[in-house]
TrEMBL record:
<dbReference type="GO" id="GO:0038023">
    <property type="term" value="F:signaling receptor activity"/>
</dbReference>
<feature type="signal peptide">
    <location>
        <begin position="1"/>
        <end position="31"/>
    </location>
</feature>
<dbReference type="InterPro" id="IPR028082">
    <property type="entry name" value="Peripla_BP_I"/>
</dbReference>
<keyword id="KW-0812">Transmembrane</keyword>
<dbReference type="InterPro" id="IPR052612">
    <property type="entry name" value="ANP_Clearance_Receptor"/>
</dbReference>
<dbReference type="InterPro" id="IPR001828">
    <property type="entry name" value="ANF_lig-bd_rcpt"/>
</dbReference>
<protein>
    <recommendedName>
        <fullName>Receptor ligand binding region domain-containing protein</fullName>
    </recommendedName>
</protein>
<dbReference type="Pfam" id="PF01094">
    <property type="entry name" value="ANF_receptor"/>
</dbReference>
<keyword id="KW-0732">Signal</keyword>
<dbReference type="GO" id="GO:0007165">
    <property type="term" value="P:signal transduction"/>
</dbReference>
<keyword id="KW-0472">Membrane</keyword>
<dbReference type="GO" id="GO:0017046">
    <property type="term" value="F:peptide hormone binding"/>
</dbReference>
<dbReference type="GO" id="GO:0016020">
    <property type="term" value="C:membrane"/>
</dbReference>
<feature type="domain" description="Receptor ligand binding region">
    <location>
        <begin position="66"/>
        <end position="226"/>
    </location>
</feature>
<keyword id="KW-1133">Transmembrane helix</keyword>
Amino acid sequence: MYERVMSVPCGRKLVFFLIASISLFVDTVTGHRHDENQAITDNEKEVKIGVLLPMTGYWPIGKTSASAITIAVDRINEDQTLLPGYNMTFLWNDSMCLAAEGLNQAVEFRIAGVDAIIGDGCDIICGPAAILASSWNLPMVSWGCESPTLSEKSIYQTFARTVGSFSKMGKLFLSVFRYFKWKSIGILASTESIWQLAMSGLMKDFLENDIEIRYLHTLSPGHVLVTEREEFKSTLLHAKETARSKWTQK
């Protein structure tokens, strides 16, 4: 279990999502809201949250976003209209974006007596960890998990998230294509389940709207950036030449 770290580069874009996440379970954790004018006293109650972030592994996004947690919590504690009579603290653990490690850290949070969990950003962790959280009647809010199965409230009863399912991103891309009058596309997708799901959704929406899919390729992400792997450079170049769309100016 790690302590607060201020030296980690700040992922400021996550501040909004963290504050939004916290707002989703504030009422659940506190049980009721105090009068907004109530002053914070020395006897204020503690609201302790556990934050799951992949700090190591193949997607160490925590290295560029961990300090956003500090900013979000400090802002909430400074604004007495949000949690009057309460003081928010947090613990954060490295999930490594691995199911086994994520579950282990979720159990550590349970032992530490957290009131709620924020995280993870990896679907492979959110699924089983959210089931545990539900069995503990513990609120869990993800800032990055997109799997549509997580919307099944009969299973994930205490789970919520601040992002939508990637399976529905087709409508966004269709709007962009219509604006620029593009008629074709190339798709490169990871073999990971979430990106295969996103690819399937995109293909369905594009084909139903007469968008030609000129290039389709799946690749295994591994633990190295695709742009740094020689075997994929030719794939990217081929995709560029095959799938480049011609668009009509207004």
